[in-house]
Design brief:
The protein is globular. The protein contains no helices and eleven strands. The protein is an all-beta fold. About 0% of the residues lie in helices and about 50% in strands.
């Protein structure tokens, strides 16, 4: 299994970025995909998830209304559209995959990408 994130970078506060995660080696249409982030001095935290079932999308409170997760099963890709970015969103963002229908905790995900850095300047 391989998950490859892209789309990170440096952006000013209030700006937007779109992260992508290309998956291979797994049954993507039967995988719940999640985004997590890890900032210096902080624990890894759940950002957003999208179930492979009709359950749909779910988010952490701190990104509701600003971030949107989506998926393209034909392209085996999951996206994270990040708007109204804040300096506190600065972190390495990771995508992850699991067959579990809904998963919010890192231990529920068995496959991880290498991460992409997002830096938001004030």
């Amino acid at each position: 299994v391989q998950l490859v994130e892209s789309g990170g970078g440096l952006v000013q506060a209030g700006g937007s970025l779109r992260l992508s995660c290309a998956a291979s080696g797994l049954t993507f249409s039967r995988s719940t995909m999640g985004w997590f982030r890890l900032a210096p001095g902080k624990e890894r935290e759940f950002v957003a998830g999208i179930s492979w079932t009709s359950f749909g999308t779910y988010y952490s409170d701190f990104v509701k209304g600003r971030f949107a997760i989506s998926r393209d099963n034909a392209q085996n890709t999951v996206f994270l559209q990040m708007n109204s970015l804040k300096p506190e969103d600065t972190a390495v963002y990771y995508c992850a995959a699991t067959p579990t229908i809904v998963a919010r905790h890192f231990h529920e995900y068995g496959f991880w990408g290498q991460g992409t850095q997002v830096t938001v300047s004030s």
